[in-house]
Amino acid sequence: MKIGIFFGGQPREREISFAGGKTVFENIDKSLFTPVPIFVDSLGNFILIDNQYLYKNEIREFFPPPAMVQDRTYSVYVESVIATEGTDINEMIGAIGKKIEPQEFKNYFDIAFIAMHGPQLEDGAIQGLLEWYNVPYTNSGLMGSAIGIDKIAQNQLIELTLHQGKKSLTLTRLHWQKTDKLALFQKLIGEIGLPLVIKAPHQGSSIGVSIVRENDFHAFVKAVNQCLFIHSISKKEWIKLDEKSKVQYLQKLTNVNEGIGMPVILALSESVEDELNGHLCHHPQEVKERLDFHFRFGDEEMYMISAESETQVLIENYIKGKEFSCGVIQDEEGNPIALPPTEIIVGEIFDFNSKYQAGGSRKRLPMEASLDELLEVQAKCCEVFKQLQFKVCTRIDGFLTEDSQVFLHDPNTIPGMSPTSLVFKQFAEIGLNPTQTITYLIRASLQARLETGKNTHQLWKIFSELDKSIDNHQNEREKLPKIALIFGGFENPQASLLKVRKEYAKIASSGKSVPVLLYLTGTPQAPQYYLFPFNLLFKEDISEINQVLLADKHPLILETMRNAKAITKKYATEILPKAELVSYDTFVRNIDEVVNLTI
């Protein structure tokens, strides 16, 4: 069965989508599926990409192809090169793969695995396109996706479901440009209170989120404009930059995960009227030249407005409490099951870098709270999942306050699939490794598509075929050779941990053998070998592993495992409750191959 893995895309989260697509490609069960990587460029082209490009660090390393870019002063996306250098897009696509059209999808794959995030990819647009061409796809359908990308609608529906009593206000850009901004700020302080949380309402992840903590009017204006993807610079700020600093400034502005991206409109104010009379710039070099010219003769502040700017922002009260993220999945009957909530420990806010960059935040799984509080979090997440028409798997973020109140926000219908993503860590606690998790997501998605009453005969055929393959694979698993992966050791156990994670994924996804983890600790004179539960591979580092190595499972984990036991039985095997001290000589008698990954 061929799985088209869709990654990349137009939105600001294209780089994390690129990383997620690579993770799915590497971890998908090769004995059940043939992965077909489909790169979606920032112009919306679908490209059957050569596998080699999956292993680049970021999209801009291979697309636009460096050999086809004349000006390499800046690292830019293809839209900037096409608009300014006139390079033929089809020639660029041909350098990395083959362009395919939606009507051709079924010639290349049976199911679309969507590893993309943000507008057009997580809002029902790509889902609708796939439904039009009768291509089944993963995760939520049209309704759940449309709700999942709209933070304003989410707030309203979550309030109707849970009666949270959160204070919020929607501010349109048109009202923002006409209103007395200082009076508005004082009104918000009085009605909502500080700190204020300001969000771009149609971005995935935490892109376009600001917190105004103090009674600082200038910080408030900057935060609102940031969430509208409007940036300003004064003559004083610009002329103090040397040439190198100007390039660095504009490069940061161009980076979609921290700036406003390209193209931008240069205007004399943030108003829509001035935007329409402004100049559209597709390349940072063009922005530089126009800013140089403008400030050579004029003193007026210049505004840079994203061509993909928001037209409104969501302003909310700040919730003080423990921040968490909780995945919700579905059983065979479609009932929601909440996975163990993960506590996010960060300095300021769980933003893009905290979520997706290694070391961006610390995680505690499950969240540090009483069992009753944790069960309440799970129950409320399940209720929101059900009422907002989500399907298959959704990550729901929230806060637990000191007085045990639970506040939920920002459901994410396509959880991140990068190696650091919470979804894999939470699935591991019910016994599914990343390979088995991906299989679950594909099969559960087929089941969700069957509920729509469209193309049901063909969907039943695919679903039945996959079910037989999964059952056969499970039955044959006991006969597969076992490969012991020894890691830890005495020299550099942290580096060994990184190696074993990659090797474990490689073996598990092959479907040809079973990886068995053996953790070496102690001393060279008195080594100790532990049969190791794979879920502990997802702990932050070796020190955390050593802290929990022999600990009993948390009561919430045990309860969640009971709720999900049918899922675990379908996709995985028996779970090792905790690490077990074993004799090496006795252990290897039942092993077909030993791989030493200690350093």
UniProtKB/TrEMBL annotation:
Domain ATP-grasp: start-end pairs: 231-443
InterPro entries tied to this protein: ATP-grasp, ATP_grasp_subdomain_1, Dala_Dala_lig_C, Dala_Dala_lig_N, PreATP-grasp_dom_sf
Name of the protein: D-alanine-D-alanine ligase
Record has DNA repair as a keyword: no
Origin: domain of life: Bacteria
Region forming the signal peptide: none
Keywords: ATP-binding, Cell wall biogenesis/degradation, Ligase, Nucleotide-binding
Stored Pfam families: Dala_Dala_lig_C, Dala_Dala_lig_N
PANTHER family listed in its UniProt record: D-ALANINE--D-ALANINE LIGASE, D-ALANINE--D-ALANINE LIGASE B
One GO-annotated biological process of the protein: cell wall organization
GO MF term list: ATP binding; D-alanine-D-alanine ligase activity; metal ion binding
Family membership: Belongs to the D-alanine--D-alanine ligase family.
